UniProtKB/TrEMBL annotation:
<keyword id="KW-1133">Transmembrane helix</keyword>
<dbReference type="Pfam" id="PF00001">
    <property type="entry name" value="7tm_1"/>
</dbReference>
<keyword id="KW-1003">Cell membrane</keyword>
<dbReference type="GO" id="GO:0007268">
    <property type="term" value="P:chemical synaptic transmission"/>
</dbReference>
<feature type="transmembrane region" description="Helical">
    <location>
        <begin position="178"/>
        <end position="198"/>
    </location>
</feature>
<feature type="transmembrane region" description="Helical">
    <location>
        <begin position="97"/>
        <end position="119"/>
    </location>
</feature>
<comment type="similarity">
    <text>Belongs to the G-protein coupled receptor 1 family.</text>
</comment>
<comment type="function">
    <text>G-protein coupled receptor for 5-hydroxytryptamine (serotonin), a biogenic hormone that functions as a neurotransmitter, a hormone and a mitogen. Ligand binding causes a conformation change that triggers signaling via guanine nucleotide-binding proteins (G proteins) and modulates the activity of downstream effectors. HTR4 is coupled to G(s) G alpha proteins and mediates activation of adenylate cyclase activity.</text>
</comment>
<keyword id="KW-0967">Endosome</keyword>
<keyword id="KW-0675">Receptor</keyword>
<dbReference type="InterPro" id="IPR000276">
    <property type="entry name" value="GPCR_Rhodpsn"/>
</dbReference>
<dbReference type="GO" id="GO:0045202">
    <property type="term" value="C:synapse"/>
</dbReference>
<dbReference type="GO" id="GO:0071881">
    <property type="term" value="P:adenylate cyclase-inhibiting adrenergic receptor signaling pathway"/>
</dbReference>
<protein>
    <recommendedName>
        <fullName>5-hydroxytryptamine receptor 4</fullName>
    </recommendedName>
</protein>
<dbReference type="GO" id="GO:0010008">
    <property type="term" value="C:endosome membrane"/>
</dbReference>
<feature type="transmembrane region" description="Helical">
    <location>
        <begin position="329"/>
        <end position="351"/>
    </location>
</feature>
<dbReference type="GO" id="GO:0005886">
    <property type="term" value="C:plasma membrane"/>
</dbReference>
Length: 415
């Protein structure tokens, strides 16, 4: 091999290198660091340090946020499950079986799905192989869909409990039916997740595009793309149909709650006619009751739609626009859906007084201050009257007594 003779006028480089034209040869690197830019100029060290500092700050912020979401999801859902297992009164309420199963699904999301998604999001690389990529994707679809279907079952259970007579509710929500509904919340997601994904049905017609996206620079990523039939079918079963059922159920619950509040207000106003300010007090009480019911239902539906609607809208639209949705938007929509698993314990348990009491007992090691009092309490005198064949509780009863008489004699009051 002959060396280069630079004094020549032509100064042609050996092996294509021209010392007078660094812009043709690309940047010069020594020991892995760029010493010359494409124009041959030394880069500003302060600019490099600033970029590195900003990148490190963003990385730390992302890791902290994802860790907080996973930690709160694990602790919240574990607390719900332990509370129902330890509290005998909570185990008597059928709705709480749906809440426990929901907490179990959300716990699995935070343990089996979120960590791998966080690792890939931070490192921008998938190191666990193609087979586990399919397994992880199937678990993602299964567990998030199971969580959504549990929310739908909870809304249906509350609809039958509040909007129907007690006999209808007992006939509808038998232990066998509760078991079948919970089983359906797990079987249906399994059918639309593991079966089509492991068989590759979701990738029919787009396999070439998936193979191209698996390689991102020098990294390998876990790609999950769906064709149009799978996107429509999965989205309808996992989100849009449950969403319609939840909206109809909660709309009816709100109307019924307003009617209950109106009837109770009329009875209490008639019983307290001797008081000058009784009418104003009852109107304020009714307004507070309706406002609380409206806020609760708005919070439940608002959080559900806010968390999952962006992902499922994107999931349906993406195949029809040639899969042009940016990956950053995909990641944001997906983690917004994961956050719903962190919020569910707060919405369906922490807002419930019985659950809050059970949580305090667990966290305070069974302190007697938080023990459940006698349901009627000492010296309690309750009166009830009949209107249109239904029993209504009047003044002089504690809240627990009103709830007990209402549940035993007529439609359950929303709490």
């Amino acid at each position: 091999m002959q060396g280069c003779e630079f004094p020549q006028e032509d100064l042609k480089s050996c092996h294509g290198f021209d010392p007078r034209a660094p812009h043709r040869n690309g940047p010069l690197r020594i020991d892995g660091y760029m010493n010359l830019s494409s124009t041959g100029q030394m880069p500003e060290m302060e600019e490099v340090d600033t970029n590195e500092s900003n990148g490190l700050a963003k990385r730390v912020a992302l890791i902290s946020f994802l860790s907080l979401v996973m930690l709160m999801s694990v602790l919240g859902n574990l607390l719900v499950m332990v509370a129902v297992c330890k509290d005998r009164q909570l185990r008597k309420i059928k709705t709480n079986y749906f809440i426990v199963s929901l907490a179990f699904a959300d716990l699995l999301v935070s343990v089996l799905v979120m960590p791998f998604g966080a690792i890939e999001l931070i490192h921008q690389n998938w190191i666990y192989g193609e087979t586990f990529c399919l397994v992880r994707t199937s678990l993602d679809v299964l567990l998030t869909t199971a969580s959504i279907l549990h929310l739908c079952c909870i809304s249906l259970d509350r609809y039958y409990a509040i909007c129907c007579q007690p006999l209808v509710y007992r006939n509808k929500m038998t232990p066998l039916r509760v078991t079948l509904m919970i089983g359906g919340c797990w079987i249906i997601p399994t059918v639309i997740s593991f079966l089509p994904i492991m068989q590759g049905w979701n990738s029919i017609g787009i396999k070439d595009l998936i193979d191209k996206r698996k390689i991102s620079g020098n990294s390998t990523v876990c790609v999950f793309m769906v064709n149009k039939p799978y996107a429509l079918t999965c989205s309808v079963v996992a989100f849009y149909l449950p969403l319609v059922l939840m909206v109809l159920a909660y709309q009816r619950i709100y109307v019924t709650a307003r009617e209950h509040a109106r009837q109770i207000s009329m009875l209490q106003r008639a019983g307290g006619a001797g008081n000058a300010d009784s009418a104003d007090h009852q109107r304020n009480h009714r307004m507070r009751t309706e406002t609380k019911a409206a806020k609760t239902l708005c919070i439940i539906m608002g959080c559900f739609c806010l968390c999952w609607a962006p992902f499922f809208i994107t999931n349906v639209v993406d195949p029809f626009i040639d899969y042009s949705v940016p990956e950053q938007l995909w990641a944001a929509c997906l983690w917004l859906g994961y956050i719903n698993s962190m919020l569910n314990p707060i919405l369906y348990a922490f807002l419930n007084k019985s659950f809050r009491r059970a949580f305090l007992i667990i966290l305070c090691c069974g302190h007697k201050r938080y023990r459940r009092p006698s349901i009627l309490g000492p010296g309690t005198t309750c009166t009830a009257t009949q209107i249109n064949g239904s029993t209504h509780v009047l003044n002089g009863c504690s809240s627990a007594s009103k709830l007990l008489l209402w549940f035993c004699n007529t439609r359950p009051v929303p709490v």
